[in-house]
């Protein structure tokens, strides 16, 4: 039985796990989305969302607390200047996890974790959908649900293509060296 064992240790010692989550949080803040395994993404979500909440209050104390977790001046600056401004009115739920399939080598469940207010594709699709909706409240139709599923699938495809382009660029750079 695993009563009251809420933390996923991710098969690592505590120092390694803390360093990994800090590095992933820094990458997420700087790049706005990263591709990782589902278990790591869920652990990262519980790590980074309290930091974003602290960043809403721009004070020296809050900056020092966030820096003690991230250990990156660039990430702290980005978090307090850009991210906190966009999520100022949001009461929580700053990240989104999109499942992308399974990894080829070990069949690990892969996903993309991203900051919610920084996905331009989904934001533009939602703003277009809001203009078309009626003012009456009613049960959601299957057509609307399928449109949202299509938007998420298109977003995942765009992200996957960008990840593949980045991997191709990295391999080209390694060949040049």
Superfamily (CATH H level) name of the largest domain: Ribosomal protein L17
Please, how many domains? Answer: 2
- What portion of the residues fall into strands of 2 or more residues? 5-15%
Q: From the structure provided, what is the oligomeric state, counting identical versus distinct chains? A: single chain
Mean pLDDT: 88
The separation of the N and C termini measures: 52 Å
Task: Give the strand order, joined by hyphens, for the main sheet.
Answer: 1-3-2
> What structural class do you assign from the helix and strand content?
mainly alpha
Q: Do you know the CATH topology of the largest domain?
A: 50s Ribosomal Protein L17, Chain: A
What is the N-to-C succession of helices and strands? HEHHHEEHH
What does the model show?
The chain has helices spanning 14-31, 38-55, 60-70, 73-86, 120-132, 142-176, and strands at 33-37, 95-102, 109-115. The longest helix is centred in the C-terminal third of the chain and has 35 residues, at 142-176. The chain has 6 helices and 3 strands. It has 177 residues and is mainly alpha-helical. It has a 3-stranded antiparallel β-sheet, with helices on both faces. The radius of gyration is 19 Å and the shape is globular.
In short:
The protein has helices at residues 14-31, 38-55, 60-70, 73-86, 120-132, 142-176; strands at 33-37, 95-102, 109-115. The protein is mostly helical and 177 residues long. It folds into two domains: 1-118, 50s Ribosomal Protein L17, Chain: A (Alpha-Beta Complex), CATH 3.90.1030.10; 119-177.
């Amino acid at each position: 039985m695993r009563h009251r064992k809420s933390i996923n240790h991710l098969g690592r010692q505590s120092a390694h796990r803390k360093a990994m989550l800090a590095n992933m949080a820094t990458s997420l803040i700087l790049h706005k989305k990263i591709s990782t395994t589902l278990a790591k993404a869920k652990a990262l979500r519980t790590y980074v969302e309290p930091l974003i909440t602290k960043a809403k209050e721009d004070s020296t104390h809050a900056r020092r607390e966030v820096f003690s977790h991230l250990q990156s001046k660039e990430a702290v600056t980005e978090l307090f200047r850009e991210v906190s401004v966009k999520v100022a009115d949001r009461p929580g739920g700053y990240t989104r996890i999109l499942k992308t399939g399974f990894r080829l080598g070990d069949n690990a469940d892969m996903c993309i974790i991203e900051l919610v207010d920084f996905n331009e594709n989904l934001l533009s699709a939602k703003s277009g959908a809001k203009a078309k909706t009626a003012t009456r409240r009613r049960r959601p139709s299957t057509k609307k649900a399928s449109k949202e599923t299509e938007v998420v699938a298109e977003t995942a495809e765009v992200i996957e293509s960008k990840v593949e382009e980045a991997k191709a660029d990295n391999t080209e750079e390694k060949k040049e060296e």
